[in-house]
Write a structure and sequence with these properties.
It contains one helix and five strands; from the N terminus they run βαββββ. It is of the alpha+beta class and about 80 residues long. It has a domain of about 55 residues: 2,3-Dihydroxybiphenyl 1,2-Dioxygenase, domain 1. The protein has a five-stranded mixed sheet, with helices on one face. Strand 2 and strand 3 form a beta hairpin.
């Protein structure tokens, strides 16, 4: 992984209550772009090249995904250009 992120976004998270179906879908779709699973935890899978950029996960509270959990796009600190 490089010292500086290549994007201002740290990652994108997408909530699902059908984890197996969702991960099967993203395995197939992202696989066509050469993007595979980068990291896995119970109820969560991250995809990416150099770092976990896209997460699919079940809600930690067990309820249906809802905003703000359904989609989350946190910013990554990027140093100002010199």
């Amino acid at each position: 992984m490089s010292e500086e992120p290549s994007s201002i976004l740290s990652h994108v998270s997408l909530g699902t209550n059908d984890f197996e179906h969702a991960t099967d879908f993203y395995d197939a779709v992202l696989g066509t772009f050469g993007i595979g699973r980068f990291m896995e935890h119970p109820g969560a899978v991250a995809y990416g090249h150099a770092f976990p950029e896209f997460w699919v996960q079940t809600p930690i509270d067990g309820k249906p995904p809802a905003l703000p959990m359904a989609v989350m796009s946190p910013f990554s600190p990027v140093p100002a250009p010199k």
